[in-house]
Amino acid sequence: MENVSKYFDDGETVANYRLNLEVEEGEFLVFLGPSGCGKTTALRLIAGLEEPSEGAIYFDGQRVDRWSPSDRNVAMVFQNYALYPHMSVAENVAYPLKIQGVPPDDRDQRIEEVLRFLHIEAQASKSPAELSGGQRQRVALARAIVREPSVFLLDEPLSNLDAKLRQEMRSELKRLQDELEITTIYVTHNQEEAMSMADRVVVMNRGTIRQIAPPEELYSRPRTEWVARFIGSPPMNLLRGTRQNGSIAFGEAGSVDIGETTVGGLETVPRGDVSLGVRPEDISIATERPASTTAIAGTVDTVEPLGEYTVVNVAVGDQIVNAKVPTTSVERDDPVYLTFDDADAYLYDENGELLT
After folding, report:
1. Among 198, 230, 235, which Cα is nearest to 37's?
2. Are 283 and 296 in contact (CB under 8 A)?
3. Which backbone phi and psi does 129 adopt, to 5 degrees?
4. N or C: which end of the chain has fewer CB within 10 A?
5. Between residues 253 and 65, which one has the greater pLDDT?
6. pLDDT band (50, 70, 90) for residue 246
7. Number of helices and strands (H, E) in the chain?
8. Burial class (CB in 10 A: 0-12, 13-18, 19+), 212
9. What is the model's pTM?
């Protein structure tokens, strides 16, 4: 995609703006973002279901943005599966091959292979109404795979499934993609899906790409405050402060003494307004002031036990900081001190950009 934009309502509504992206052959790429950010429109542009208002789309070096969907050899799986209710499972899977004019013998062989591959051969004669949600999802995948597409497009395909089945299907989809080696572009607003399945994640907001990176890099090095707040559960804490001499001051909550240390890997920290970012799991809580120079005073606001860990929400001035700790005995209104390692901190400038 080169500078691809999509406008609706005669230019009044911007769905996508200047998208620049290259997807490698065989890659599993995920568009991730909140509802209405433009990720589904981007997928529809690749599929040919929408035409770009500006820019160009290429497959293997050939410009395709004026081609029909049938000429692009893409297969798309929708959120609602879009199965034909009057056809059996086998007939649903066979339909795209009939349209392509595949001979009956070849067609039957390919259908048998893909149904077996997806473990739904026993449902071949059933109608979609007789299937569970997970089985209907597999039929939709089979109908897409049987075409042997060059690009596989999936638009929030697991959102209608319950949590347990969604987790099972995530693993199944990743296995399918690894074995078939089909270039796959997947749309979701679910961070777990994106981070567990993708080779790279494209984070979108308000129609624009905010960051493209492998999951590990996206989590460990978010380039903007917006991405830092969006990725992670709970998300990264961002404390707005002011760089003064050898410290960052946070008003009544005190300051962090950074001197000439390398906070966030920085050799020097600029003066003025900055945001100090720390992941909740990198924060420790103490009930007495520790010797550490990175101790920030606060008051416990709420405590959320979540089984394997506890989230403690601490009021630091007019800001709330989330700490993710194994166990704790603190309670609401307890005075506490937050500490963290300098190496685990991030610094963002007044425009929300990561300082590097």
Report:
1. 230
2. no
3. -65, -20
4. C
5. 65
6. low
7. 8, 21
8. middle
9. 0.88
